[in-house]
Specification:
68 residues
């Protein structure tokens, strides 16, 4: 019997940075301070929903940025 792979609920910092298409340094400097993390010893996990929330909060429509 094969176990199905469970969907990821949280990512490491490196995985989260890769998912956002940025370096780990940029992620730690610009994104991580705005996220809630799960901390267990040295392990830091970022819930996928938290990354999605950050994206929603930090995305703009292209037209909004043009302005007068």
């Amino acid at each position: 019997m094969r176990l199905r792979r469970a969907p990821r609920l949280a990512l490491t910092r490196q995985e989260a940075a890769a998912a956002l298409g940025m370096s780990i340094n940029s992620f730690e400097r610009h994104v991580q301070p705005e996220l809630r993390l799960v901390r267990r010893g040295k392990l830091r996990l970022i819930p996928v929903r938290e990354i999605e929330r950050w994206l929603e909060d930090n995305s703009d429509l292209a037209l909004e940025q043009l302005g007068p």
